[in-house]
C-alpha cells in the first residue's frame, strides 16, 4: 500500500546519503531508547517495577477476574452489533427513500447520534430517565446507548456502500424491469453489503471502544473490572496497563482483518 | 430555568473548557500527527517503525482507557498533571494517530509523477513534501481531518469521567442538584451539535476553497473509504 507515492519521495541514496541515513537512524534509535529508559526509570524510582506488582497478572484467579470482564465486553459488543448493524441498514434505506418525511426523520436521527457523545446518551439512561421512573438494568444502560450511536454511524457506512455500487447496476436492474424496491433488494444491497464489510469490522472496533463506558455505568466489562481490581489490589498503573494492552491487541487484530479484507476486495475488483 | 440563571458562570466555564479541550487537543494532534506522518514516509527506518508502533497503539486503545491511564496512572509513576492537561494530552495522543493515518493516505493520493517531477528538479525529501506533495495532499485530507475534529469534540466529553469540569460534567452535576434533566441535556447536546456541525461546515467551506475548479470535484466518483468514521 505504501509502495506508491511514499516510495518516490526520496532517491535511492548514494554512499553519502546512506551514511547520513545510518547516522540519523542511530541517532533516532538512541533517542527512542532514551525515551523508553526515561519511562522505565520513572516507573522504577516510584517502585512500580517491583515484580510483585506485575507477577500477579500471571495468576489464574487474576486472569479469570479480568477474563470475566473481557467476556462482558465481548457480550455487550456482540449484542450491540447484532442489533445496531441491521438498524443502521434500515436507517440508510430510510435516508435514501423517496418519501420526504421518512428520509428527513432518518437524517435527523443519524446527524443527532453522530454529533453528540455517547457518554451523554449513557447519562440520559443513567441519570435522566430514572427521574421519570424509567429504569433499566446496568447491562441495557450500556447496550442501548451503544446501539443508538452505532446505528447512526453504520447507517452512514451503508449509505456510502449503496452509493458506491456502480450506476450501471441500477440501470441494468431497471432495464430488465425490476422495480426500485426489487432492484435494491436483489441487485444493489448484496453488492453494497459486501463492499462495506471491512467498514463494518472497523465499526466493531468502535463498538468495542465504546463498551469501555461500562466504567461509567458500573457494568462488569473489562474497563470496570479493571477499576474493581484496582480498588482491591491498589496496583493502579499495572492493572490499567494490562487492560489497555488487551484492548489494543483485540482492536489491532480486528483492524488488520478489516484492512486485509479491503485490500483483497480491491485487488479482486482491479483484476476484473 | 432557575437552574440556568443561577449557574450561568459555571455553565459558561464548562462550555469554555469543552472548547479549550477540543481546540488544544485538535491543534496539537494536527502537529504531532503530521510529524508522525512525515516520519512514516521518511527514509529513516527506526523513525518509520516508531511512528507505526505509535499509530497502532493510539488508534486501537479506547480513549477512556487512555484518559484513565494518563490521569490516574501518571501520578503513580511520579508525574503530576492537572486533570485538564491530562485530558488535552489524551485527546492529542489519540487524535494524532488518526491525523497521521489521514495525512499518510492523503500523501498517497498525490500522483507518483508529481513527486518524481519534484525530485527531478532537485528538491530533497523535505522540499518535495513541503512544496509539492503536502499542499496537494491537503485537499483530499480536508474531509477526513474534519472527521478527526468531530471525533475530538465527541471525545472531549470523556474527560468528564476523569473529573475535568467540561460541559458534560457541569450539566450532569447541575442535573443531579436540580433534577432538570431535559434542560441540561438540551444544553449539553446543543453545545456538541454546534461544535461538530460547525466544524463540518467550516471544513466544507475550506474544501470548496482549496479545490481547483469546483466542477471537477463533483464529477469525481467517490471511492469508498473504509477508515472513514472509524474514530471513536
Question: How are the SSEs ordered, and which strands pair?
Answer:
The complex is a heterodimer of chains A (272) and B (232).
Chain A: H1 15-45, H2 51-55, H3 60-95, H4 100-115, H5 118-131, H6 138-164, H7 167-175, H8 180-210, H9 214-217, H10 222-233, H11 236-271
Helix pairs in contact in A: 3-4, 3-6, 3-8, 3-10, 4-6, 5-6, 6-8, 7-8, 8-11, 10-11
Chain B: H1 2-5, H2 8-40, H3 45-60, H4 63-73, H5 83-109, H6 112-120, H7 125-156, H8 167-178, H9 181-210, H10 214-219
Helix pairs in contact in B: 2-3, 2-5, 2-7, 2-8, 3-5, 4-5, 5-7, 6-7, 7-9, 8-9
Plain-language structure description:
The complex is a heterodimer of chains A (272) and B (232). In chain A, 81% of the residues lie in helices and 0% in strands. Chain A has 272 residues and is an all-alpha fold. The longest helix of chain A is centred in the N-terminal third of the chain and has 36 residues, at 60-95. Chain A is flat, with a radius of gyration of 25 Å. The model of chain A has no long low-confidence stretch (mean pLDDT 89). Chain B is mainly alpha-helical. Chain B has ten helices and no strands. Chain B has helices spanning 2-5, 8-40, 45-60, 63-73, 83-109, 112-120, 125-156, 167-178, 181-210, 214-219. In chain B, helix 2 runs antiparallel to helix 7 and helix 8 (167-178) packs antiparallel against helix 9. The model of chain B is unreliable at 215-222 (pLDDT under 50). Classes of the chains: A mainly alpha (272), B mainly alpha (232). At the A-B interface, helix 1, helix 4, helix 5, helix 6 and helix 8 of A face helix 3, helix 4, helix 5, helix 6 and helix 7 of B. Chain A: Residues 70-258 form the ABC transmembrane type-1 domain. Chain A: This is Amino acid ABC transporter permease. Chain A: Keywords: Amino-acid transport, Cell membrane, Membrane, Transmembrane, Transmembrane helix, Transport. Chain A: It is a multi-pass membrane protein. Chain A: Belongs to the binding-protein-dependent transport system permease family.
Amino acid at each position: 500500500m505504501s509502495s506508491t507515492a511514499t516510495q518516490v519521495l526520496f532517491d535511492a541514496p548514494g554512499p553519502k546519503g546512506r551514511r547520513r541515513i545510518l547516522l540519523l537512524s542511530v541517532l533516532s534509535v538512541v533517542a527512542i531508547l532514551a525515551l523508553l529508559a526515561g519511562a522505565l526509570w520513572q516507573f522504577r524510582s516510584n517502585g512500580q517495577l517491583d515484580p510483585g506488582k506485575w507477577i500477579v497478572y500471571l495468576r489464574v484467579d487474576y486472569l479469570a477476574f479480568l477474563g470475566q470482564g473481557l467476556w462482558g465486553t465481548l457480550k455487550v459488543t456482540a449484542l450491540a452489533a447484532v442489533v445496531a448493524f441491521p438498524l443502521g441498514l434500515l436507517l440508510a434505506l430510510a435516508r435514501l427513500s423517496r418519501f420526504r418525511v421518512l428520509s428527513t426523520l432518518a437524517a435527523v436521527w443519524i446527524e443527532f447520534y453522530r454529533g453528540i457523545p455517547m457518554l451523554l446518551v449513557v447519562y440520559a439512561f443513567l441519570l435522566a430517565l430514572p427521574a421519570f421512573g424509567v429504569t433499566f438494568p446496568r447491562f441495557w444502560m450500556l447496550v442501548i446507548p451503544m446501539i443508538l450511536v452505532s446505528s447512526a454511524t453504520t447507517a452512514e457506512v451503508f449509505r456510502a456502500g449503496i452509493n458506491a455500487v456502480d450506476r450501471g447496476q441500477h440501470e441494468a436492474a431497471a432495464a430488465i424491469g425490476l422495480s426500485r424496491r426489487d432492484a435494491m433488494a436483489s441487485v444493489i444491497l448484496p453488492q453494497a453489503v459486501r463492499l462495506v464489510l471491512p467498514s463494518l469490522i472497523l465499526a466493531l472496533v468502535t463498538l468495542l471502544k465504546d463498551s469501555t463506558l461500562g466504567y461509567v455505568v458500573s457494568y462488569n466489562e473489562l474497563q470496570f473490572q479493571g477499576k474493581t481490581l484496582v480498588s482491591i489490589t491498589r496496583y493502579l498503573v499495572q492493572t490499567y496497563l494490562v487492560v489497555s494492552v488487551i484492548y489494543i491487541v483485540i482492536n489491532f487484530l480486528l483492524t488488520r482483518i478489516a484492512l486485509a479484507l479491503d485490500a483483497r476486495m480491491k485487488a479482486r475488483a482491479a483484476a476484473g | 430555568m432557575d437552574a440556568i440563571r443561577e449557574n450561568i458562570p459555571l455553565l459558561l466555564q464548562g462550555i469554555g473548557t469543552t472548547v479549550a479541550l477540543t481546540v488544544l487537543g485538535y491543534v496539537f494532534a494536527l502537529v504531532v500527527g503530521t510529524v508522525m506522518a512525515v516520519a512514516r514516509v521518511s527514509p529513516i527506518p527506526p523513525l518509520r517503525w516508531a511512528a507505526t508502533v505509535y499509530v497502532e497503539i493510539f488508534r486501537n486503545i479506547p480513549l477512556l482507557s487512555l484518559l484513565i491511564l494518563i490521569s490516574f496512572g501518571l501520578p503513580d509513576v511520579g508525574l503530576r498533571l492537572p486533570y485538564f492537561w491530562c485530558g488535552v494530552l489524551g485527546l492529542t495522543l489519540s487524535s494524532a494517530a488518526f491525523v497521521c493515518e489521514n495525512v499518510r493516505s492523503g500523501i498517497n493520493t498525490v500522483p507518483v509523477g508529481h513527486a518524481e517531477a519534484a525530485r527531478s528538479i532537485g528538491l530533497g525529501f523535505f522540499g518535495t513534501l513541503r512544496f509539492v506533495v503536502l499542499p496537494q495532499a491537503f485537499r483530499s485530507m480536508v474531509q477526513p481531518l474534519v472527521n478527526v475534529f468531530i471525533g475530538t469534540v465527541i471525545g472531549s466529553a470523556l474527560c468528564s469521567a476523569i473529573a475535568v469540569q467540561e460541559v458534560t460534567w457541569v450539566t450532569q452535576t447541575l442535573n443531579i442538584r436540580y433534577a432538570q434533566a431535559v434542560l441540561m441535556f438540551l444544553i449539553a447536546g446543543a453545545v456538541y451539535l454546534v461544535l461538530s456541525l460547525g466544524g463540518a461546515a467550516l471544513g466544507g467551506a475550506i474544501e470548496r476553497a482549496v479545490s481547483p475548479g469546483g466542477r471537477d470535484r463533483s464529477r469525481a466518483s467517490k471511492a469508498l473509504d473504509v477508515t472513514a468514521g472509524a474514530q471513536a
